[in-house]
Amino acid sequence: MATARTAYRTCPLCEATCGLELTVEDDRITRVRGDDEDVFSGGYLCPKGAAFGQLEHDPDRLRQPLVRRDGELVPASWTEAFAEVDRLLTPILRDHGPDAVAAYMGNPNVHNLAGGLYAKPFLKALRTRNVASASTVDQMPKHVSCGLLYGDPLAIPVPDIDRTDLLVMLGANPRMSNGSLLTAPDLPGRLDALRRRGGRLVVVDPRRSRTAEDADLHLAIRPGTDALLLLAVAWTVLDEDLVRLGRLAPFVAGLEDVAPALDRFTPEAVAGPTGIDAGTIRGLARDLATTERAVVYGRIGTTTVRYGTVTSWAVDLVNLLTGHLDTPGGAMFARPAHVPDRSGRPPFRTGRWTSRVRGLPEVLSEIPVATLADEIETPGEGQVRALVTVAGNPVLSTPNGVRLDAAIASLDAVICIDPYVNETTRHAHVLLPPPGAMHRSHYDVAFYGLSVRNVVNYSPPVVPLPDGRPDEWEILVTIAGIAAGQGPDVDVDALDAFVARTLLDQLVRNDGSRIAGREPDQLWAMLDGRRGPERLLDMLLRAGPYGDGFGAVADGLTLAVLEGQPHGIDLGPLEPRLPDNLATASGKVEAAPASVLADLDRVADALDAPEDGLVLVGRRHLRTNNSWMHNVPMLTKGRDLCTLQVHPDDAARLGLSDGDEARISSRVGSVVAPVELTHDIATGVVSLPHGFGHDLPGVVQGVARSRPGVNANVLTDEEDLDVLSGTAVLNGIPVTVETVVTVPA
Ligand code: SF4
């Protein structure tokens, strides 16, 4: 009889970082519960977390590499697979240079330790300028605006949801997403607590989302016009002399340029395009300015639009003007335990290079994924001939997926690190499956920087890695070694030691770290024999703001300390971090970045844009996360999630009934989806979720294929961008909708 044991692990399936209590029998997870003792989540669990075991034990999950032979993907040993990577990549790199190999890093990279710590050295080894990630799909505008405001694109303030009395939320649905660029387990419970303590929730969204249902006020804004609303709120705060910078006043630059730049965006001017009357906008501005603890938070609906960077800036501008930036109950910066107090990087700028074909500026060393197909299709020096994907499915998750799908199929080499044969990896020449989450250690490198409390938690592997199977970080290091010309027999330990020593050298040079100026050789000798991510994490924790400074600080954090705390350590509520956290050249918050103010002319065009025609927006469901959980039976049962939501008034005009098949068409493509009539969506707006469309030939995901849905990114337009960030418009796409006439047989 199998012996059951209990293991604790942070859930890696979304940004909320909940603690899981796993029952393990014979190396199988037989039960999943929320960890009641987790210092952050306190037992909370959503349906995705409950499905952790099913995801791990999915029979369609690859456990052995696949290599393309005679057109077919066939099983291979790891030795054969890495030899094939070398055979394919090395000549391309030699003959065409590093830019001929593009890389796409999918969203799950930020949910695992290997991706968090080894993606950077991996990409550095590839030396290509053609890198794109899921960040360029939906969050780069926030990085750009924060880079311009604070000098550090990763310094993203989060709403201090547990202490605020007024939360104004735009384009976010945390009752379904569980938070985005906002790490807070049990967000539904936290929103309930806000209301219970007398606080108010205002939701701005074209859909009456699940979050909007429980709001004190729901403003059904016209998609893509959040910038206009926020600019009018800021204009009102300035016009009515409601500005209060408080403690930050000496640390703000450029404020004198803001008022003249906003003079066009009065509440009356934006009322028509936004669909929100001027009185409501003025009232919102006054509420924000006069409520002691208030905050504006914007997410997907504010970043996947034509003016995403302006909108993201405007969110922070309103918080700044109303005295709610870097104050309890406002928008605050987390203090992650593994990040030195100052970034150590030069002040932020974009456009250090531009993409070859469309000349789009680099941001955070990435080009927009919206131009990846251009780079593959367009002949000439620097043409992309090979693609390496890591945990990514850009055919489903990036704009104009049909075009990108065809472009990827034309490549000389496609190397994928992924556990599934999905819509993108079906084109792979080599498919390298990483071990499942239960075989890997975990620490949330990305999300403790976006957390509403300062917490820290480390999870060791739940089940040991089977013999002969490389960990994900070892796969990345091996490909990095191949790209560096070492051939397929890479000395992983030597290369890993190089990565670790490079990091240590950087940490001692960073004057914000707890080991600044120390002798690296001495510190290197103090490391305790770990390898891989554990060695890197231990160094980061020890050099970080709560660290032991390699023995310099009594009771400071080390990885060994975390290993003794399986439910995590609560490091306390968020505390003000400005001006110390600023990395701008001026040392101040740059309230009026020139590039953002220049883009206001483009935003002003929306004031006169006619309001005709339907526009498409996306939506999330609690049981899904982009494209990668549709093969889990317990998450896919129940009603069809991939429906086109249509308001009954629009449906009547279009001759559509509930359950009809409708053809949705945009500039770039069309799909057919079943109609769901609902009053929860504004007239003039239709909604289709993303991440579906699993019926392409060759996909090996039996459950997902049984309910494939349609790919919303057949409709999204790779040409329609937020110019400052290169992020494509995914919300507010002009579409036509018509009934599909079935011809009787
Ligand atoms: S909310 Fe996110 S982290 Fe928490 S259990 Fe669900 S998927 Fe996991």
Approximately how much helix is present in the residues? 25-40%
Strand content: 15-25%
Averaged pLDDT: 95
- Coarse shape: globular
Number of strands: 28
How many helices? The count is 27
- What's the alpha carbon Rg, rounded to whole Å? 25 Å
List the ions, cofactors and other small molecules found in this model. Answer: iron/sulfur cluster
Distance between the first and last residues' Cα: 58 Å
Q: Give the structural class.
A: alpha/beta
In CATH's first tier, which class of the largest domain applies? Alpha Beta
CATH architecture of the largest domain: 3-Layer(aba) Sandwich
User: In the CATH scheme, what's the topology name of the largest domain?
Assistant: Rossmann fold
Number of domains: 5
Low-pLDDT windows of residues? none
Q: What's the story with the biggest beta sheet?
A: 7 strands, mixed
Spatial strand sequence of the major β-sheet: 5-4-17-16-15-6-7
Structure overview:
By secondary structure, this protein is α/β, with parallel strands linked by helices. The protein has 5 domains: 4-56, 2-Layer Sandwich (Phosphorylase Kinase, domain 1); 66-137 and 350-495 and 568-573, 3-Layer(aba) Sandwich (Rossmann fold); 140-337 and 579-601, Dimethylsulfoxide Reductase, domain 2 (3-Layer(aba) Sandwich); 496-567; 612-739, Barwin-like endoglucanases, CATH 2.40.40.20. The protein is 31% helix and 16% strand. The chain has 27 helices and 28 strands. The strands form 8 sheets. A 7-stranded mixed sheet has the order 5-4-17-16-15-6-7. A 6-stranded mixed barrel has the order 21-25-22-24-23-28. The protein has a 4-stranded parallel sheet with strand order 11-10-9-13, sandwiched between helices. Strand 4 (66-69) and strand 5 form a beta hairpin. Helix 3 packs parallel to helix 19 (472-483). The longest helix has 19 residues, at 78-96. The model has no long low-confidence stretch (mean pLDDT 95). Residues 11, 13-14, 16-18, 45-46, 48-49, 178, 185 line the site of iron/sulfur cluster (SF4).
